[in-house]
Amino acid sequence: MQSFSIFPFEPPGDIQALRQEVRAFIAAHMPQTRAAGRANCWSVADPKFSRAMGEAGYIGMIWPKRYGGHERHPLERYTVLEELLAAGAPVAMHWVADRQSGPLLLRYGSEELRARIVPGIARGETFFCIGMSEPGTGSDLASVRTQGVRTKEGWRINGQKVWTSGAHYSQYMIALVRTQEGSERHAGLTQFLIDMSSPGITVRPIIDLVGAHHFNEVFLDDVLVPDSMRLGAEGGGWAQVTAELSLERSGPERYLSSYALLVEFIRQAGPTPDAATRALIGQFTAELWTLRQMSRSTAAKLAAGQDPMLEAAVVKDLGNSFEQSLPRRILAGIGGLADLSDESELMEVLALLLQISPSFSLRGGTREILRGIIARGLGLR
Ligand SMILES: Cc1cc2nc3c(=O)[nH]c(=O)nc-3n(C[C@H](O)[C@H](O)[C@H](O)COP(=O)(O)OP(=O)(O)OC[C@H]3O[C@@H](n4cnc5c(N)ncnc54)[C@H](O)[C@@H]3O)c2cc1C
Description:
It is a single chain. By secondary structure, this protein is of the alpha+beta class. It folds into 3 domains: 15-127, Acyl-CoA dehydrogenase/oxidase, N-terminal domain (Butyryl-Coa Dehydrogenase, subunit A, domain 1); 129-239, Butyryl-CoA Dehydrogenase, subunit A, domain 2 (Beta Barrel); 242-377, Butyryl-CoA Dehydrogenase, subunit A, domain 3 (Up-down Bundle), CATH 1.20.140.10. Helices cover 45% and strands 14% of the residues. It is built from 12 helices and 8 strands. The protein has helices at residues 15-29, 35-38, 47-55, 74-87, 92-108, 111-122, 237-249, 259-269, 275-303, 309-334, 345-356, 367-377; strands at 128-131, 147-150, 155-162, 172-178, 189-195, 201-207, 213-225, 230-231. It has a 4-stranded mixed sheet. A 4-stranded antiparallel sheet has the order 2-3-7-6, with no helix packed on it. Helix 1 runs parallel beside helix 4 (74-87), helix 8 runs parallel beside helix 10 and helix 8 packs antiparallel against helix 11. It is globular, with a radius of gyration of 21 Å. It binds flavin-adenine dinucleotide. The site of flavin-adenine dinucleotide has 18 residues, from strand 1 and helix 12.
């Protein structure tokens, strides 16, 4: 049984000054959008905004300075992230690299890779995608079939990844690959850094329900990857990928994807909402505040080098439930007969989130899988 703990974690120094600084940065650099353009903003890509973030020192905030980082406190980073997400800033391009690929490279990459690649991430110029899922391999990640065979020149990789967010604008993928022929399940998996411009890589768009292009199919046909691009030990991929998922699951993006709707709802309610609306706003605020404390506590554990897999799964499950429930609860609050074709900002963002929010509890691991991890962690299964 793993220990489960959430504790209050306060940022150091004058976090309000940083908050004001980030708000001024957002006001200066974020393009004007309607509420629907601000919802789920960590799926909205804007290279100019990512570059400006890099210049302002808001990417790689907690990484060592010698790799282009800024050696800030993890809660300073958390504060920047929550301000960006609350404002609906277009952060998708650098999000994966800042959240998990950079930390993975710093931990498992060679010194040559760290020095060559990490500074570009911190500048907001180098972007990453996650090559985990494959056709038939989503929840059951240990069944990965993309194969890497060692040759004299390096590794020859063959297979297919799917649902790969941002593969169409990323220079690199970190892929989970089976490197031991005939190996089963968790053994024999290795992570590789793959240059997306390598011969043999084909990226095909997948267009989602609302007509947007976020994710892709990625085909790897005899792609040559030098051994120097291997991350960590051969066969050590499973432990690395599960630690990476803790980074992926516990951040503020796991409960703020529908925040633009909440803001619009409160704006439309005006200064003197009726009692039922006041009660609803109070409930949303209490839930949001609790999730924020849990997520900040998990961020502190990650920064201390721990792997809070259990806490991260709880944050993601409860956070996704919150952000998925907002559109339904607000629709019920304003009356089920609300006209979703109405062109007000509230209706526009509500209609969008009603369509895309089911995906919030799929990306990064489904609800059923998270609950399995939680049950196992608590010794219930
Ligand atoms: C918006 C979005 C972005 C994504 N981006 C990426 C990305 O960048 N890179 C990447 O690698 N992947 C990405 N994914 C893929 C995502 O990780 C998978 O969709 C997810 O892990 C589920 O896998 P699956 O789609 O194969 O569903 P399946 O695994 O087939 O699951 C189908 C259903 O069965 C349930 N189920 C499966 N196994 C069990 C079990 N043992 N017990 C109980 N229930 C179970 C699941 O919970 C789910 O409800 C993305 C997905 C989305 C929606």
